[in-house]
Amino acid sequence: MVAALTLFSMVLYALLCLFGIMANGFIVVVLGREWVRCHRLSPSDMILISLGVSRFCLQWVGMINCYYYFFHRIHYSTGLARQYFGLYWDFLNTTTFWFGTWLSVLFCVKIANFTHPIFLWLKWRVNDLIPWLLLVSLLISFIVTMLFFVGNNIMYRAFLQGTFSGNLTLHGFAKRLEIHYFLPLKLIALSIPCSMFVVSTILLITSLRRHSCRMQHSAQRTQDPSVQAHSRALKFLVSFLVLYALSFLSSVIDAAAFALIDNTWYWQWQIMIFLCISVHPFILIFGNSQLGGTLRKLLLLPKTFCKDKGTSSPS
């Protein structure tokens, strides 16, 4: 029963990652082609292509890391594999959280209606700020990655030198380091962008509520473009927020409950962690007119080809 559950979870995890890889790859290819053709991208497209690239690489790194760890657990824990995989994973995971946050912030600034001077300044300058915010995200991710690397290196050197006190084993030392070093670092590194995401969503909800109150006496309020823009952005952000929070909580719980990775729930935790970066790209595609239109054209190509072939064939 346990073996069957593990096998099913492994297959489900692989399918989830492959679908996510295809969706993120599609976003990168479509927007990359647009970038080459027009030599420029809108601020939202800059974030989308950055998010797509980071998620595409993150899923490949994560999938290889998970299977390597599962089948070579001892070598993974005692060799350099943990450091190598951790180096890429920590950087890409942090950038993914930050890029997702900037996407929510951009929607909030562009759509919400507030008259505070700081908000008006952001609305005016946000297009120029996005490239710099993306670069700052890369810098923050690099610093966080180096801090994670220091912890992984400490664990590796402790194993080589055998500097364990008392009856403390390698697993016990790794668990202690995970709880007292990696968990606080992960909380700090991911809580900041997550908090900004939540605040931007709350601001958008507040803006929608205020605007709806102002329009409540108007018979055309449901047709008002501002209300419709608020509603579309809100549906998008709420769905993203659910996946974003699920990914955040799964990553934190995975670090806090380090022993869970040694039992049959390992793959279920990986599915939870990767759910956001695998499902959310589809929400992005269907919520974006350019991406959605391109996908619909691709899906209609076989039907169009068959129809043209049938028309051109001799009667």
Protein described:
The chain has 315 residues and is mainly α. Helices cover 86% and strands 0% of the residues. It has nine helices and no strands. It is globular and about 65 Å long. 30% of the residues are buried. The mean pLDDT is 80.
Sum up the structure in keywords.
single chain, mainly alpha
**How many separate helices?**
9
Strand content: under 5%
**N-to-C CA distance:** 58 Å
Derived structural class: mainly alpha
Rg, Cα atoms, Å: 23 Å
How much helicity do the residues have? Answer: over 70%
Question: Biggest sheet, in brief?
Answer: none
Order of helices and strands: HHHHHHHHH
Query: Quick check: average pLDDT?
Result: 80
Number of strands: 0
Approximate shape:
globular
Detail the poorly predicted runs.
Answer: none
Brief overview:
By secondary structure, the protein is mostly helical. It has helices at 2-38, 43-71, 73-78, 81-111, 117-161, 170-214, 225-256, 266-287, 289-312.
Summarize the helices and strands and which ones pair or pack:
Elements: H1 2-38, H2 43-71, H3 73-78, H4 81-111, H5 117-161, H6 170-214, H7 225-256, H8 266-287, H9 289-312
Helix pairs in contact: 1-2, 1-8, 2-4, 2-5, 2-8, 4-5, 4-6, 4-7, 5-6, 6-7, 7-8, 8-9
